[in-house]
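Researcher: Go.
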Amino acid sequence: MFWLSFVNGLKMLLHWQVWIALLIYVALNIAFMIIAYLISSKNELTGCIIYPLGLSAIHSVAAGFLILYLYPLMLGLEFAMPMAGMKEMFKFILITSLIAAGATSILSSIPFVGKLVDLPGVENFIKGLIIFRMSSVYFIDDYLTEGEVALIYPTFRQTLGYCLIALAVAGINFLLMTFCSYLSSKRSFLKDTEGVVVMFVTSGISIFCSMIPLFMYAQYVKLSIDIILSVY
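Model: Structure:
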């Protein structure tokens, strides 16, 4: 079922709502990066404080609303979350997102583990995983028995598998960023400007792709629910 969830997670990209949500998600993150870059270019100390703290919070909050919007699609329905539902759960998802940001910050301070967590793809996956699991109380857990809930989520080893996929995505994006930066450095004009553009574009691609492992995780949950419901 792990590999089927891998395929179904990629199929999530066939929904137009996913593309719109992901592009808005990327745009919000890049907009903050540009603002932080402009601030740090004028005041390096302020930029150094705002960038890591603000970026983590913005990542989490944007991911939270992305996940909330796409939750019905991730569970196999043919529609995204209506605006009425988004408004109703605004406070909950905001708090949940900030909790996810705090949790990943704590994990990133642990020796060795922190270096892996700090990789953009892994960090975003862990934040998304925390938000997804906490939100499942409203969307999944209330409709299943306690025993059934224990069966629908991936095991620890399987979750590590999704983390490895996120790590692989992060590694590919890092190689892409390095290659693009190398090509940019070989050009004889607008080097600094091109370097900044390359950084934002590759960061955007990284942010976009970092959600795909979470889609795979969600599809595992969806497949497990389908099996339980087929019994009745």
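Model: Residues 2-231 form one domain.
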